[in-house]
Amino acid sequence: MAIRFYLDNRPNKAGEHPIRVSVCVKGTKLVSTIGHSVTPEAWADGMIVKARYVNSKGITGKQINAEIMKLHACFAEYEISMTDRPDRREIRAVLTTSLRRRHFPYSPGGPTTLFTDLDRFINEESLSGQWAYSTIRCWNSFRVHLVKHNPIISYEDFDEDGINHFLTFLRYDQNLTEKTVKKLYTHLKWFLGWAIRKGLTEQTAINIYRPKFKVLEKPVIFLTKEELLKLYHFPIPGRGTTISLRDFEGRPYEKTITCRDSLDKTRDLFCFCAFTSLRYSDMAKIRRTDIRGNYLYVTTQKTNDRIPIDLNAFAKEILDKYQGQEFPDGLALPVISNQRMNRHIKELCELCGFNDPITRVYFRAGQRICETKAKWQMIGTHAGRRTFICFALSSGIPPQVVMKWTGHADYKTMRPYIDVAEKTKSEAMKIFEKEMMK
Q1: Residues 6+ positions from 317 with CB-CB distance below 8 Å
Q2: DSSP secondary-structure letter at 54?
Q3: Rg of the chain on CA atoms, in Å
């Protein structure tokens, strides 16, 4: 077994670099993060952190080193128990389980506090609900905010005033957006509701308290038909080529291409999502055995639904491009990480000149904030799925048919896309009327 820890070359907002782990078990390799970040100065020789170092989240180098040693031991034991070559999903499950124990080290029988009950809640719910690691990280973030608010907080503190104090702390001390505050309040309500059902507290104010949140819907970012086809056929310049561009205000600037191959793969993966309605998480798991004739059979990660998707000519063309190539675990496409793909799709859309200004309005600490950016800056991997949905609806395909492809369970989640489609149709009719009257 080979296991290596190293720093990501991209710093986070605190100026620290995430610690990444590369594991190879019987020839199968997985690269991921371990949930800790440090400064390069604290990263000593031998892939360890200086013991006296404390990162921005209050985690000491000694604690991080202990986690690294545990992961070493965990994978060494795992490899000994393996008789056949594992696939990456199995290795990721081992990593996720190990990290879950670190985030929520619940041990029954010890003294109980609100925080030990919270760890118990997360252990129970994460196992019964089969949470992804990203969900566990969200709950870890909630726990950190709760500790920062009051490290000795109890159930009795969550009367109406106490809930209000917690929300005020999130808004003004932590300077979080209103949408994030609402999400953390939802976490609190879920946890306290569980504690009430378990008979751990008689404080039931959370059931009748109704706070107000100023949350505005974000604009639905997607590509038009013309933009999608331009991206699909766009000739990506060679590495080292310098391109002259203009921002959405018309100011000129230059950009140099640094990784043509990654851009080409990203374009294919994004367009495949746009031609099939798939999320990144589902696209990244497509195997050749999932493709049967003109259909792609996908079991979605988010809803666990088995969905047959009709493959159109564009999606088939992308699959045919990689037909003769071998990828790990029998995958059908050359998958790259969601983070890298998010960076590269922005760069591609920038090169394509998708510069329409888009304004996003949100609230932070009671203040209304308006941000205007070029469209390419707001494009991410999920915009591929949105592009499919918006184009299908605006083309006149009934929502109930689109929902069979996308796996949406009800109209509530489809409503933002239906609104966009109706607006697009209205604008198209105005153009039609204008042309007819010439």
Answers
A1: none
A2: B
A3: 24
* 171 φ/ψ angles, rounded to the nearest 5 degrees: -75, -45
357-368 pLDDT, tens digit each: 999 999 998 899
| Distance between CA atoms of residues 324 and 317, nearest Å | 13
Q: For the chain (length 438 residues), average pLDDT per consecutive 10?
A: 85 89 88 89 76 84 85 81 77 76 54 86 83 79 90 94 96 94 97 95 94 89 93 93 89 89 95 94 91 88 77 95 89 90 95 93 92 94 92 82 76 68 58 56
**Identity at 339, one-letter amino acid code:** Q
Q: Write the pLDDT tens digit of every residue in 413-437.
A: 767 676 666 665 555 555 555 655 6
- Tell me the DSSP string of 8-71: -SS--TTS-EEEEEEEEETTEEEEEEEEEEE-GGGEETTTEE-TT-B-TTS-BHHHHHHHHHHH
* Distance of alpha carbon 182 from alpha carbon 215, whole angstroms: 8
Residue type present at position 120: R
Which pair of structure tokens corresponds to residue 168?
Answer: 């005020």
Nearest 10 degrees: Cα torsion 167, 172, 174, 180: 50
Tell me how many degrees the CA angle 419-284-67 measures, rounded to the nearest 5. Answer: 115
Q: Say if CB 22 and CB 29 are below 8 A apart.
A: yes
Helix axes 88-103, 133-149, angle to 10 degrees: 10
pTM for this predicted structure: 0.70
> Taking the mean position of all CA atoms in its chain, how far away is CA 276?
19
Count other C-beta atoms under 10 Å from residue 88's C-beta. 19
Tell me if residue 258 falls in helix, strand or coil.
Answer: coil
Distance CA 8, CA 20 (A): 6
The H or E element containing residue 253 is strand 252-256
> Residue type at 80?
I
- Token pair belonging to 45: 């020789």
